[in-house]
């Protein structure tokens, strides 16, 4: 059953706020902004550290709440900057606790406001947030609904971090105002404990913004999520994989989906540019790869397409020598698509073969079905997001790449 928690009050059409936001900026970026408004040079480091802590460890949205910042400085900041969150157009909570937010981001340049969905999936002892990197996608994977949509635009670092902040706000996952100023804020025991870049878009085609955002997410004085609990999923943008490892250092998930180039060319057309061998070589060389930091290979189960026992055996052969786990994702059909999800028995047979070869390949029951079914109640502009978001859920339900 769908239980809408809240719907944001009708807001004026979003436009870029006149005041720049400090959210999503690196420390250097905040420093430069402070300098621009005339903050004394010798104060910049200290002010940046204070702001960083209030914004990310404490989650405040109002400069007036920054109690260890002088009153004058608070009003200077207030007149120059904003810490505004994205507008929440709708919020839904599933009977199993899965939550979904439809968020609207302002127009940038000549564009229009855009909407994306972010999903939170609670589990025992942890909770995973599925975050988007782009609106639409330039790639055209034949089984993916997002792939039928043109890229509208990249999300900014502010908008990517904003998805995490909204989730923490709404879940009550920031310390409350009674926490004394300067008190240590524990990074453990949070409701949002894991992030997967498995929402809309190809994160490695929006590298700089995704990097900036994930470095804030993993910053020990920022959102404090361990890099082992952040997973970046890519369809296989080979040249960017080493940079992702070196500069972001998160866990890596690869949307493999096929074990032969002829088939992968059809399912993930980017394969024509970066075929399986090149992709797997990049994986073998992924910085920091070890048995403790394995790569997740996502494999969508398409009936009579890629789901035979021979495919499973070939998968095992291909991955030999790569510390890996395998996510078997039941295919999520969408209107007009020609693929079907493999039968449950077929998925189990496939999983057994992979398991016997020593790879974890859990298949979990999908969650949040009820609110996904109710997606039609959201704004029609979000049409393209629905299938995208369903599939992301399924990807996670099949076991995402964290411990
Ligand atoms: N663009 C990136 C990340 C977003 S997609 C990527 O392709 O990896 C997240 C995962 O969902 C990918 O593995 C993607 O292939 C998979 N997926 C896409 N459409 C799906 C569908 N209809 N059913 C199941 N999984 C799907
Ligand atoms: Fe883009 Fe990923 Fe969908 Fe392919 S699977 S079209 S890369 S979002």
Automatic annotation (TrEMBL):
Q: Which residues bind S-adenosyl-L-methionine?
A: 201-202, 233, 255-257, 332
Which metal ions or organic cofactors does this protein require, according to UniProt? [4Fe-4S] cluster
Q: What does this protein do?
A: Specifically methylates position 2 of adenine 2503 in 23S rRNA and position 2 of adenine 37 in tRNAs. m2A2503 modification seems to play a crucial role in the proofreading step occurring at the peptidyl transferase center and thus would serve to optimize ribosomal fidelity.
PROSITE patterns assigned? RADICAL_SAM
Could you give the cofactor binding note from the entry?
A: Binds 1 [4Fe-4S] cluster. The cluster is coordinated with 3 cysteines and an exchangeable S-adenosyl-L-methionine.
Anything further noted? Reaction proceeds by a ping-pong mechanism involving intermediate methylation of a conserved cysteine residue.
What gene name is given for the protein in this entry?
rlmN
- Give GO BP annotations, semicolon-separated: rRNA base methylation; tRNA methylation
Sites binding [4Fe-4S] cluster sit at: 137, 141, 144
Q: Which family does it belong to?
A: Belongs to the radical SAM superfamily. RlmN family.
Give a GO cellular-component term.
cytoplasm
The organism's taxonomic lineage, starting at the top: Bacteria, Pseudomonadati, Pseudomonadota, Alphaproteobacteria, Hyphomicrobiales
Query: Where can this protein be found?
Result: Cytoplasm
Entry-linked Pfam families: Radical_SAM, RlmN_N
Q: What is this protein called?
A: Dual-specificity RNA methyltransferase RlmN
Q: Does the keyword Iron-sulfur apply?
A: yes
Q: What class of enzyme is it?
A: transferase
Molecular functions per Gene Ontology? 4 iron, 4 sulfur cluster binding; metal ion binding; rRNA (adenine(2503)-C2-)-methyltransferase activity; rRNA binding; tRNA (adenine(37)-C2)-methyltransferase activity; tRNA binding
- What Enzyme Commission number does this protein have? 2.1.1.192
By its UniProt entry, which InterPro entries does this protein fall under? Aldolase_TIM, Methyltransferase_A, RlmN_N, RNA_MTrfase_RlmN, rRNA_lsu_MTrfase_RlmN/Cfr, rSAM, rSAM_sf
Q: Which UniProt keywords apply?
A: 4Fe-4S, Cytoplasm, Disulfide bond, Iron, Iron-sulfur, Metal-binding, Methyltransferase, rRNA processing, S-adenosyl-L-methionine, Transferase, tRNA processing
- Top-level taxon of origin: Bacteria
């Amino acid at each position: 059953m769908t239980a809408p928690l809240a719907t944001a009050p009708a807001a004026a059409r979003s436009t870029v706020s006149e005041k720049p936001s400090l959210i999503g900026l690196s420390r250097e970026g905040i420093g430069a902004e402070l300098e621009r408004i005339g903050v004394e040079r010798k104060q910049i480091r200290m002010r940046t550290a204070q702001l960083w802590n209030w914004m990310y460890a404490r989650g405040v949205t109002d400069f007036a709440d920054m109690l260890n910042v002088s009153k004058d400085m608070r009003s200077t900041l207030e007149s120059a900057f904003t810490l505004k969150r994205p507008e929440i157009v709708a919020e839904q909570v599933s009977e199993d606790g899965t939550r979904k937010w439809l968020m609207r981001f302002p127009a940038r340049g000549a564009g229009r406001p855009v909407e994306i969905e972010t999903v939170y999936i609670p589990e025992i002892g942890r909770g995973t947030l599925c975050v988007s990197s782009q609106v639409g996608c330039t790639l055209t994977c034949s089984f993916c609904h997002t792939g039928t949509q043109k890229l509208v635009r990249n999300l900014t670092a502010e908008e990517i971090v904003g998805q995490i902040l909204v989730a923490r706000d709404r879940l009550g996952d920031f310390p409350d105002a009674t926490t004394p100023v300067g008190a240590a804020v524990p990074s453990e025991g949070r409701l949002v404990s894991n992030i997967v870049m498995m929402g809309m878009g190809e994160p490695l085609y929006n590298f700089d913004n995704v990097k900036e955002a994930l470095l804030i997410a993993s910053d020990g004085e920022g959102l404090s999520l361990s890099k082992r609990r952040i997973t970046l999923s890519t369809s296989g943008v080979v040249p960017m994989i080493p940079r992702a490892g070196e500069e972001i250092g998160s866990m890596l998930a690869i949307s493999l989906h096929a074990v032969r180039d002829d088939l992968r060319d059809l399912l993930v057309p980017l394969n024509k540019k970066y075929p399986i061998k090149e992709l797997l070589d990049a994986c073998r060389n992924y910085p920091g790869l070890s048995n403790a930091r394995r790569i997740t290979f996502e494999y969508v189960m398409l009936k009579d397409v890629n789901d035979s026992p021979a495919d499973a055996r070939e998968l095992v052969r291909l991955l030999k020598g790569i510390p890996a786990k395998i996510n078997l994702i039941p295919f999520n059909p969408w209107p007009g698509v020609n693929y079907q999800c493999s039968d449950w028995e077929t998925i189990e047979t496939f999983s057994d073969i992979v398991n016997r070869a020593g790879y974890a390949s859990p298949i979990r029951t999908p969650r949040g079905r009820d609110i996904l079914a109710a997606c039609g109640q959201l704004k029609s502009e979000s049409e393209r997001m629905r299938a995208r978001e369903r599939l992301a859920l399924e990807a996670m339900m099949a076991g995402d790449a964290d411990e």
